[in-house]
Write a structure and sequence with these properties.
Layout (H helix, E strand, L loop, with lengths): L11 H18 L1 H9 L3 H22 L11 H19 L9 H12 L14 H16 L1 H8 L5 H11 L8 H26 L3 H11 L18 H14 L3 H8 L3 H6 L1 H21 L6 H12 L14 H13 L12 H17 L11 E2 L2 E2 L2 H29 L3 H12 L15 H15 L3 H7 L6
Helix pairs in contact: 1-3, 1-4, 2-3, 4-5, 4-8, 4-21, 5-6, 5-20, 6-10, 7-9, 9-10, 9-11, 9-12, 11-15, 14-15, 15-16, 16-19, 17-18, 18-19, 18-20, 19-20
Length: 475
């Protein structure tokens, strides 16, 4: 019996219906950079954003309302494919505003890096116009919120289809019973943290525009900056520590904030992922402080380096390319781990790491106990089933396999060192954005495509993209 003979295929009507609806939504969202370009009197970008907005609204909502699409209830495969293709669609459209200064491939790289909240860049930040600076930051803010969550809250009707789309993006942490209400609750938390961070950044010493751009890229753990020196431009411990705080907040599961507001503060601090995140930040900070030189002047840079890596934000206060190989490997490890599930962070996620460590512990103790002894795999008060454990192991191995293959390909194409190739690929797949200097317009076109695909895979945790690309999903 062949597995392929029993696979469910995608419903083209469902997928196209939701994609055209998402395109219309993108048109509405592009009205914001359209008005920003008018504010800065950059009328070339006014025309670009205006044309993209108008065209996306007319085509997207126009086709979405056609009687041709008698869409049925979506199954899981439809939801996964829509999730993957929406990010690709937004990135393809988002590449257009970069055409006055970049090739389409470089524009696609920049847009994918934005919407996937990665932060790797093909541009010199100091030469960008204010409109493009805002669009880059805005794309990361939208990507962090989750294009699918936006679609749920604005376009989709309540029901199973909505829940499957939501679950394919954020997991099944349905905190309000209705997935539409859940999506709106997540958005409220997201906007509240953004507003609070904007005020905090301004009070810490950033100007109003700087504070706006950087909070739009901090809460989504994106990392795009106004300056090539990133946060190091400010040379301010107050700003560095304020940014550190909000990077950590962005890497914590957003449903936990909702529960905390409802009075369940204890559950917030007792969450295993929150505890693991704080523990790893403290441990990594100690490692970097010792490596940088055990002096008071290196405490803040050590904390910042750890936080920006494990939260997958990607800001810098020290030149990453100048770090010794040992520090690069430690940074790579943190970039692979990432933040909490249900947060804007990338990586394999702390939940999976803790489950994997639990599996190792379980296998060890089983070898010391009688065969009839049964030890369940537990995560807090939750018993992890066999299928869930297998899924986590499969994801982890897939993640590492993609990391290794991509690293070898970039190593061969670019002729750079192994550690630098691994660093760049880990940064792309973990949606981090830190770079040792390899990412640039001079990168081989195939290397650019490899990093684009890695960003896409990493943002959506592999499965939706593989399902969308698998020919059997469509036949």
């Amino acid at each position: 019996m062949k597995i392929s003979e029993h696979l469910r295929t995608a419903n083209w009507h469902n997928v196209l219906h939701e994609l055209f609806g998402a395109l219309g939504l993108l048109g509405l969202l592009l009205l914001v950079p359209f008005f920003v370009s008018i504010l800065f009197r950059e009328f070339l970008y006014t025309q670009l954003f205006g044309g993209l907005s108008f065209g996306s609204i007319v085509i997207g909502f126009g086709v979405w309302h056609l009687d041709f699409f008698n869409s049925e209830e979506m199954n899981l495969i439809d939801a996964l494919i829509v999730t993957a293709l929406v990010y690709l669609l937004f990135s393809l459209v988002g590449a257009v505003p970069f055409l006055p200064i970049k090739t389409f491939l470089d524009g696609l790289f920049e847009a994918m890096s934005g919407f996937t909240t990665t932060g790797l860049t093909m541009v010199n930040e100091t030469t960008l116009s204010p409109s493009l600076h805002f669009f880059r930051a805005y794309s990361q803010w939208l990507g962090g919120m989750g294009i699918i969550v936006l679609t749920l809250a604005i376009l989709l009707r309540p029901g199973k289809s909505a829940f499957k789309l939501y679950a394919s993006e954020f997991g099944e942490a349905n905190i309000q019973g209705s997935v539409i209400s859940t999506a709106k609750a997540v958005i409220k938390v997201y906007i509240s943290l953004t507003t609070l961070g904007f005020v905090a950044f301004y009070l810490a010493g950033m100007g109003l525009y700087d504070a706006l751009i950087h909070i739009l890229t901090t809460i989504p753990t994106g990392g795009f900056s106004l300056y090539s020196e990133s946060i190091g431009f400010y040379n301010s411990e107050a700003i560095s520590m304020t940014v550190t705080l909000f990077m950590i907040l962005g890497a914590i599961s957003f449903p936990l904030y909702y529960l905390a507001v409802k009075g369940e503060v204890r559950e917030f601090f007792e969450d295993h992922q929150v505890q693991a995140l704080i523990a790893l930040v403290l441990l990594g900070s100690l490692v970097f402080i010792i490596s940088f030189g055990p002096s008071p002047a290196n405490v803040v840079p050590g904390i910042f380096q750890t936080t920006t890596a494990i939260t997958t934000t990607g800001y810098n206060t020290v030149p990453t390319g100048a770090l010794p190989d040992g520090d690069k490997f430690v940074t790579i490890l943190f970039m692979i781990i990432g933040g909490g599930t249900g947060s804007t962070a990338g990586g394999i996620k702390l939940f999976r790491l803790l489950i994997l460590l639990g599996l190792i512990r379980l296998v060890f103790f089983r070898s010391l106990l009688p065969k009839e002894a049964k030890l369940p795999l537990r995560f807090g008060n939750i018993t992890v089933g066999k299928e869930e454990a297998e899924s986590i192991i499969a994801f982890f191995l897939s993640y590492l396999l993609i990391l290794v293959i991509s690293t070898l390909a970039v190593l061969w194409l670019e002729g750079t060192s192994l550690v630098n190739s691994l660093f760049e690929v880990a940064s792309a797949e973990g949606t981090v954005g830190m770079s040792v200097g390899l990412t640039s317009p001079d990168l081989h076109p195939v290397s650019k495509l490899i990093l684009i695909v890695n960003m896409w895979l990493g943002r959506l945790e592999i499965t939706p993209v593989l399902v969308a690309l698998y020919p059997g999903s469509w036949r």
